[in-house]
Predict the 3D structure of the following.
Amino acid sequence: MTGSGKYVGFVRRFVPGHDFSHAVKALIVFGFSRRSFPKRKIMKLQINGEERIFDDSPTPLTLASLVDILGMKPDRVAVELNRDIVPRDRWSDTKLAEGDRLEVVHFVGGGVVTDPPRPLLPDELS
C-alpha cells in the first residue's frame, strides 16, 4: 500500500472512524484517482442577503424550480432577480446563473381588527 497514504487520509475525512484502506488500495490498483471522478459542480446564489449553494445540474435551475425547492407557494411569493422584479409568468423561462442575487418576499395574510378606526374630533385635527 505504498504511496496511498494521501488517499486513505482523503477517505477518512469523509467517514471518520472507518478504515477504507482496502478500498483505496483497490482504487489505486485499478488506476483510479481523485482526478478520475467527475467533480461536483455547485452554483452559489445570494438569496435575501444569504449565500446559498445548489447543485449545478445538467438541467438549468429556474426561478420556478427555486421557489419549489424553497417550499414556498408560488401564488404568495414575489421575486426580484438582480434588482429586477420578475413576473410570475416568466419564472419557468428565467434561468439562474452563478452569483445571481435574489430577493424573495413571501406574503403572509392574517390579522384581526378589533376596534374600527374612529373619526377624528375637530380639536384633534390641528
User: Anything to note?
Assistant: The two ends are 91 Å apart (CA to CA).
